[in-house]
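[Q] Does anyone have a clean structure-token version of this?
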Amino acid sequence: MSEPPPSSSTPSTASPPTAPPQSPSDPRPPKDLLVGRVTRGGSGPCFGLETDEGKVYALYSTETLTLKVGETIRVKYAPLRLKIDCGPGEHVSAITIDRVG
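[A] Here you go.
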């Protein structure tokens, strides 16, 4: 029969924090990634997206796909360099669009 390992009786020397950390401890999402619900669907090339924070985007995509209003999507995006009006919201170019869930 083996004996359990000895327990440490040395008290912790760490002191409680005196101020909040200088940088966030939780990772921030990438700045080129959006997740939200489709507000304007169809077969493109323009779509509407609203994030959980209520920010509205007008997406321009060269992908061949059809999106339905209410679908949740994840979009990798870049600034829109074309002079095209895709409706209300911040205009961005959708590099990739993936359905979530």
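[Q] Thanks! Anything notable?
[A] The mean pLDDT is 85.
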